[in-house]
Amino acid sequence: MTRKAAPVKADARDRLRRVLFLVPYAVRHPGVPVRELARKCGVPEKQILEDLDFLLGVGCPPFAPDDFLDLYVEGDRVHVALHQSFSRPPRFTESEAAALAAAARALGGEGTERVVRALREAVPRDRRAIFEELLACIFAGSPPAKDSLLGRIEQAIAARRALRIRYFTATRGEESERVVHPYTLAQRLGHWYLWGHDEGRGKALPFRLDRIRECAVDEKRFEPPTDAELARGRLFSEASGPPVRLRLGPLAAAWALARPGQWRVVKRDRKGGAEVEVPGVSDEWATRFALSFGGDAEVLGPPSARRHFGEAVRRALARYP
Amino acid sequence: MQKAERLLDLAALLLRASEPVSWREIQEQFPEDYGGSGEAAIRKFERDKAELLELGVPVRWVGGDEDLSAGYLVDKEDFYLPDLKLPPEDLALLYLAGSAALAQRAFPYARDLAHAMNKLSFAARAPGASEVAAVASLQLSADDADPGSRAESSARLEALSTAVAGKKRVHLVYAGAERQARTERDVEPYGLYQRGGAWFVAGFCMLRQDIRSFHLGRIVSLTVNPAAPRTPDFEPRKGFSLAELATRESWEFGVHAPVRCRVRLDGPASPEERDSFGPRATWKESDGRAVAEVMATNQEAFLRHVLSLGDRAEILAPRPLRERARKVLASLARRVS
């Protein structure tokens, strides 16, 4: 059986994959800007223009004038006359479908296996066995526990239902009740955020997941956000206090520094231990993190974080008289 | 003719044909490419056909009969991406799953995943807000810091994805956590899994002659066996389950004989807390407090997990582990005061 192997000429293959998407997309969206195609394909505009140039030379034997793709660029907009051969993109390849199915399984939810079946059906018939084999080779994480925070948020985004949350605002140090229309989840600076419209404040805002204290899915449904509404969220930023400083023993350092995250190593000692700084995390997070190394790590500062750590240690110790 | 052009022309020819196209006809249409006689031309065509197949263009040969001549064709039904026919909430989930995975930056087959997300807008009956949300999530995550190490880890993940799919052996230089020392070994990569935000490759380790997992962040360098890229180097062992390995809790790794451990939590346990003890923990309620019981084959790891819950949790049994928790906390308390 032919298997996917190391790409010999990645350029040719990448280009073909792109144009097999690009042509049907341009047919469906007449006058689509070059910029949009470039964004969709994740390549520079120059690359798209080269692809279009390449497409001009593509035809169908016997290469009579009618056998060529009817394509032109006007200003910065692309037009492709309805092309009978490439009106839709090809089916999912086994790795495309398997990657998507693995992502869906990690997310969980009631529809997961329905989704996996549908993806399988969308792979060419004689590649489906490879799809299944490949899917068994990727485990992108256990889905969030049923009724967990992440599980509920995902469910609400999918069903377009509002969320009632109790949220801790770090800058004011207080909790408040909010009704949020959840738009999407985003990862920034090492944290997961819910990006959504806050009814009370009348605008879209980021909510850091670890600061959501309570969360319930409401009956109320909401209208999907417009492109422009979402665009405003691109550059949200958040004030964060001074970074938390931790001392990690050799074992803890070896584990921690291999994990993704925003570490700044301040100092390393000869035995392999380290002092690190982590920006934008709560005192609570720092305490839990340090304790998870079973005595091989401690919180050094700032003073509030050190205090939080010390109190947690003393309270935990009090449970072992 | 350039290869990309030739492949696309070939696809267009076969897609447009209403009947199978004979080898002779293909040779006539592409005289420069397949014009030669004999084996070489056929081999070249077969390679192209295999590449088209990998791109999702299913070219197949049909033997002739009275009504149909023999030749190559692309089954249109089997070529065009069909409508997935999923209810809107399932589609929304799919968009969310794909975009969340891409937002992590490191995901196996990330490039394929990005292509799949693009194709989704054709496979979904109701494109729109969900798609927009997916794109937005990507852009929201785009400026994440630390691009250097991310690029490195996603390149490693991509190389390993290819090796897993092609069943190619890899050579690893690996920095172990416990021993600090670097080791070199050949590994037959069976699969990739994610745990606690980090990716691992699982497979048969030739050095240890057993199934092992390797943290991608500790792989110093990686070489995929370059010989015969289309021929598999190995077959995974029968009965290997990636999901089973990936969902093993840290205290379930075999360090010693199984020990029954009990933990008491303050008040009822939240779904997240319950989840953190894994699917094999058993739960009881007593006096409004939750008690979890697990079988541990690595008590030290279990201790670390319980400590990370702070004063919410307390080890009840076994006695020596309870004593060990007290010691660890007492030593920390001395350091902080």
Can you tell me about this structure?
The complex is a heterodimer of chains A (321) and B (337). By secondary structure, chain A is an alpha+beta fold. Chain A is built from eleven helices and 13 strands. In chain A, the strands form three sheets. A five-stranded antiparallel sheet of chain A has the order 8-7-6-5-9, covered by helices on one side. In chain A, a hairpin with a 2-residue loop joins β2 and β3 (77-80). The relative contact order of chain A is 0.07. The model of chain A is unreliable at 1-9 (pLDDT under 50). With 337 residues, chain B is α+β, with helices and mostly antiparallel strands. Chain B has four domains: 3-79, Arc Repressor Mutant, subunit A; 88-144, no CATH class; 154-246, Roll (SH3 type barrels); 251-336, Alpha-Beta Plaits. Chain B has 13 helices and eleven strands. Chain B has helices at residues 3-16, 23-29, 31-34, 39-54, 76-79, 88-103, 110-123, 129-142, 147-166, 242-246, 271-276, 299-308, 319-336, and strands at residues 59-62, 71-74, 170-175, 182-195, 198-205, 210-215, 219-224, 259-265, 282-286, 289-296, 313-317. In chain B, the strands form three sheets. A five-stranded antiparallel sheet of chain B has the order 6-5-4-3-7. A four-stranded antiparallel sheet of chain B has the order 9-10-8-11, with helices on one face. In chain B, α6 runs antiparallel to α7 (110-123) and α6 runs parallel beside α8. Residues 139-147 of chain B have low confidence and may be disordered. Chains A and B meet through α1, α4, α5, β4 and α7 of A and α1, α4, α6, α7 and α8 of B.
Shape of chain B: elongated
Q: What is the string of SSEs of chain A from the N terminus onward?
A: HEHHEEHHHEHEEEEEHEHEEHEH
> How large is the share of residues in beta strands of chain A?
15-25%
Can you tell me the CATH architecture of the largest domain in chain B? Answer: Roll
Number of helices of chain B: 13
**In which range does the helix fraction of chain A lie?**
25-40%
